[in-house]
Design brief:
By secondary structure, this protein is α+β, with helices and mostly antiparallel strands. The chain has helices spanning about 45-50, 65-70, 95-110, 115-135, 135-150, 160-165, 170-180, 195-205, 260-270, 275-285, 315-330, 335-355, 360-370, 380-385, 390-400, 415-425, and strands at about 5, 15-20, 25-30, 75-80, 85-95, 185-190, 235-240, 245-250, 290-300, 305-310, 405-410. It folds into two domains: about 5-205, Cytochrome Bc1 Complex, Chain A, domain 1 (2-Layer Sandwich); about 230-425, Cytochrome Bc1 Complex, Chain A, domain 1 (2-Layer Sandwich).
Length: about 425
């Protein structure tokens, strides 16, 4: 996977990944700002700003013109706001590179932030907020963050809340945009079938010529700490629905931590597929769940390991007891050589399948650069996976599976909360 990396005098970073056999091209913009950068009174502004870029720019003054222009060429486009980054992309046929570059560049360089559109979009986001809150699985995951990292923006919803959203003004949006959307805080990427000289000239003229600006110092760096376990780290919502959704979490490791390969393999062993321990025991043998899986999420200075499940409402306490038993087994008993070998091949195979298109290749490169400052090749990632030992797996389990690192969230017909609190013991 050969790419070119260039850093401009204004601090902008550019990655070019030419793939001559591809029929498409993708232009990606990643901004190093997410919901955890927000002051509480502006909670949700990062996500709100992402929406407003699609509502009109200097060359493309209406949302309808923007959307019909992309649809007319059969393009695929979207944006995602996370807790630490915001990403925009447009992917289209290789012949349309100049157009998608011009459109996305104008959207982020010259947004209108029309006052009428701002008020209209507040209504749209409020409905989006209700959609997530009505979804038990999403709600359980959001509540887990709150239980895990109380009183921090990392623990709050990316979308914000009703009060903060309604209070965001046009001036707030312009100020936030001018503060964080500066060259030194932006990474551009182009991947697929495109002319590298043409791409570099376009970027130099539009993005590379922007004035150099300072990126504000991060104010959240020491907010996240591991606290003693107590009932405040458990959140339950009693709802009259057919199924209960649970999210069990443990504070784990930052993006760049050397233990990440072992953590990911541990995640796969526990709940990474239909042959994982929890899937076989809770679904296949006991029939308590349809959905049961585990995964990890990294941030700049911390991270979380999660087990999520959709369960029969009368079996939540039993399922939590079983999950606790499985986690304790991993603390006390080493995995077998065969299980570790199988999990390593599964991990590498899934990674290979996930890197089949230009956009996933580009995200693989840019994501590493933004989160860790280093870029490993796929071969280097595979080698790190292969180096993980049985002892490494057990040591990670011993370190993170402890009560002081744990938080729990459940949404559904939860009537006996005290019983649930006692079900999970590590």
């Amino acid at each position: 996977m050969k790419y070119t990396h260039k850093k401009y005098e204004n601090g902008l970073n550019l990655f070019l990944l030419p793939l001559k056999d591809a029929e498409s091209v993708v232009f990606t913009i990643m901004v190093k700002v997410g919901s955890r950068y927000e002051e509480q009174k502006l909670a949700g502004i990062t996500h709100f700003l992402e929406h407003m870029f699609f509502k009109g720019s200097k060359k493309y003054p209406t949302s309808e013109l923007i959307s019909t222009s992309v649809d007319a060429i059969g393009g695929d486009w979207n944006a995602m706001t996370g807790k630490e980054t915001t990403e925009f992309y447009i992917r289209a046929s290789k012949k349309n590179f100049k157009f998608i570059f011009d459109l996305l560049t104008d959207m982020l360089h010259n947004p209108l932030f029309d006052a009428t559109e701002i008020e209209r979009e507040k209504g749209v986001i409020l409905e989006e907020m209700k959609m997530y809150r009505d979804n038990p699985r999403s709600r359980a995951e959001e509540n887990l963050d709150k239980a895990m990292w109380p009183n921090t923006r990392l623990g709050e919803e990316i979308i914000g809340d009703e009060k903060s959203l309604k209070g965001i003004t046009q001036t707030d949006l312009f100020n936030y945009w001018r503060t964080w959307y500066v060259p030194a805080n932006i990474v551009l990427g182009v991947a697929g079938n495109f002319n590298e000289v043409v791409a570099e000239n376009l970027i130099k003229k539009t993005w590379g010529s922007l004035p150099k600006q300072k990126v504000p110092k991060m104010f959240w760096a020491d907010q996240v700490k591991i606290n003693s376990s107590d009932t405040s780290r458990m959140i339950f919502e009693n709802r009259k629905i057919e199924q209960a959704s649970i999210s069990l979490g443990f504070i784990s490791y930052a993006h760049a931590d050397k233990k990440i390969p072992a953590l990911r393999l541990l995640s796969s062993i526990i709940g990474g597929g239909m042959s994982s321990r929890l899937f076989i025991r809770l679904r296949e043998k006991l029939g308590l769940a349809y959905s049961i899986y585990a995964y990890s999420e990294g941030y700049y200075e911390t991270g979380m390991f999660m087990v999520n499940a959709g369960l029969r409402s009368d079996s939540v306490d039993k399922a939590l007891t079983i999950i606790g038993e499985e986690l304790k087994t991993l603390i006390k008993t080493k995995v077998t050589e065969e299980e570790l070998r199988k999990t390593k091949e599964q991990s590498k195979g899934r990674m290979a399948l996930g890197l089949e298109d230009p956009q996933s290749k580009l995200d693989f490169i840019i994501g590493q650069f933004v989160m860790t400052g280093k870029i490993l090749t796929t071969e280097e990632v595979y080698r790190r996976v292969d180096k993980v030992s049985i002892t490494d797996i057990q040591n990670v389990a011993k370190e993170i599976f402890s009560s002081k690192r744990m938080a729990l969230s459940a949404v559904g017909p939860i009537t006996n909360q005290d019983k649930l609190k006692k079900s999970i013991k590590i």
